[in-house]
Every structure is written in structure tokens, then in C-alpha cells.
Amino acid sequence: MRCVIARFPFDLTKGGVLEAMKGVKPEQVIGESVIIGRRTYPVKQVGQVITRQDRRDFSAGEVIRAMTRLGFTCSGLPQTAEPEGAPTPLQRASAELGAPAAV
Smallest Cα–Cα separation from 39: which of 66, 65, 18? Predict the structure, then answer.
């Protein structure tokens, strides 16, 4: 499958990605990730290995789109849920500023 990552076209196959990632030790996953085989890799690590480009040259979204189209399972950033009853950002800002003065 042809895809564009960092403005360069690549012909990627699922088997080719599996072969490229064989023997590569996964780094710690902090953000977006891709499951390749039985291992979970950070998206930027996968992009760097398959494109041989610096991680700053492409976005995680470009790699996620390509890996999803090839049939790999991708996951985005974990959602951080605020506890129930926690004030919203607007409520916190209002509390910090205080109540309006009486006229």
C-alpha cells in the first residue's frame, strides 16, 4: 500500500512492517501506540524504523493512519478523566478570581 509520511511516498505492506520491527525492543509507551505482533510500540518509534527518518520529520497521526490501513491495532492518547464533582476549568478560574464586587 502506498502512503505518504513526512511528504515522502512509501510502499508499505503488513509483512514488511512485521519484518522491519522484528528484533526491535519496544520503548516505553507514553502516548499513541501500535500493536505489532505481540508487542506494543510507540507510534514514533515505528515510524522511525519503517521510514528511516528522524521522529521530528513526521507526525504520529501520519503513522497511525498508515498502520490502521495496514490492519494494525492503534490506540491514541489515554483519556484522563476528572473525578466526579471536580470543578470545571471555568469554575476553577472563577473561584481564583473571586466573586464580583457589589456595586
Answer: 18
Phi first, then psi: give them for residue 24, nearest 5 degrees. -90, 125
Q: How far apart are CA 56 and CA 53, in angstroms?
A: 8
Backbone phi, then psi, for 55, in 5-degree steps?
-65, -25
Burial of 13 (0-12, 13-18, 19+ CB in 10 A): exposed
Q: pLDDT per position in the chain (103 positions), as tens?
A: 898 888 889 999 999 999 999 999 999 998 899 999 999 999 999 999 999 999 999 999 999 999 999 999 998 765 555 566 777 888 888 888 876 666 6
Single pTM value for the model: 0.70
CA dist 47 and 64 (Å) reads 9
